[in-house]
Amino acid sequence: xxxxxxxxQLQIQSIAREFAQKRIAPVAADFDKSGQFPLDNIRExxxxxxxxxxxxxxxxxxxMDSISYVLAMIEIAAADCAHSTIMxxxxxxxxxxxxxxxxxxxxxxxxxxxxxxxxxGAFALTEPQSGSDATAMRCRAVKQADGSFVVNGKKxxxxxxxxxKYILLFAMSDPEKHSRGITAFxxxxxxxxxxxxxxEPKLGIRASATCEIEFDDYVAQPDEVIGEEGHxxxxxxGVLDAGRIGIASQAVGLARAAYEATLEYSRDRKAFGQSxxxxxMTQAKIADMKCKLDAAQLLTLRAAWMKQQAAKTGARFxxxxxxxxxxxxxxxxxxxxxxxxxxxxxGYSKEMPLERxxxxxxxxxxxxGTSEIQRMVIARNETGLR
Length: 386
Ligand code: CAA
Prior knowledge:
alpha+beta, Butyryl-Coa Dehydrogenase, subunit A, domain 1, Butyryl-CoA Dehydrogenase, subunit A, domain 3, 10 strands, binds acetoacetyl-coenzyme A
């Protein structure tokens, strides 16, 4: 087993770290406060290859591997979770899905502008009445005699929805077939029949814009079907397996930032004539934070490695992705909680980033499958029972 990273992996890590520390960290609190979408930074990240890390160069991406993606995501998330949310949706939920299931023509047309950061992509599965139970969707795509589909319905909690140019949509094309009646489509948001609702006010990741979207007799052409008709649910689940590695990476980055701030504070802050880090109660917390952080990072890298193998063998990596997401998101929430506690009043103050880490950490336990769904996926795969 080799724990070293390649030259190429270290290079993208260093590019991401430099951009994150110079361009994102100084403005992260302002973006959190205003809730403004960081468009200029995202465009710059695109130029650095960070919006399509695993996308081959012929489709406008950096052509790197899944470990590189994890390393870059960790650096961006350590500076700001909202930037890393936008990055993860572009990279995995959008580009990865199209690369895996799109035709050659679709890849050239829809991946290149998003992987280069010129435009933003989104993924639409969740609806007001269906989140975890994704097959209960009501959004309908009715096939017409000419092969086109007329789409009607709503999708909610769409990350980057307010700014996305293209959206990978999942809609029910044959309700009687349940999960086998769902089809994936490419949506052009400039077209008639597409609408956006209000931007959601959120607890954390406030600079990543989220909204409801609506379809009112939107027409999807036959060449806008992604993969085969009726295969949409499997496409969504396969894409989410990869997406969950992105969220695990995001959680690791956030947890690392909270941990490193805590180390520094516990050395500097004095109480009862000593650094607070010399008290056993603080030391126990620091040791537990370190163990959870390392475990989360290793499991996330393992999942990325499994994904790379799966690209050659076609094997599923659902369990490893769920294990990584569950472990890393719960570690991030716990570490952010302990970090606020060790910082005391300063942890609760907006003068330091700890309260932001605490608010941002919560979403990693919710989106791209809640912790309860991750446990369900792991236990079903392990036991073979349903
Ligand atoms: N890869 C490929 N196929 C898969 C799969 C996977 N990972 N998981 C399931 N399937 C297949 C099954 O093999 C089955 O195929 P057959 O019909 O051939 O038998 C089919 O899909 C149906 O599977 P299930 O019976 O297991 O489906 P289910 O209804 O019991 O649901 C679930 C399973 C795991 C609960 C799933 O619904 C799920 O993951 N729910 C959570 C959804 C989610 O993560 N939503 C987040 C949305 S994105 C987001 O967060 C917003 C954002 O922008 C960041």
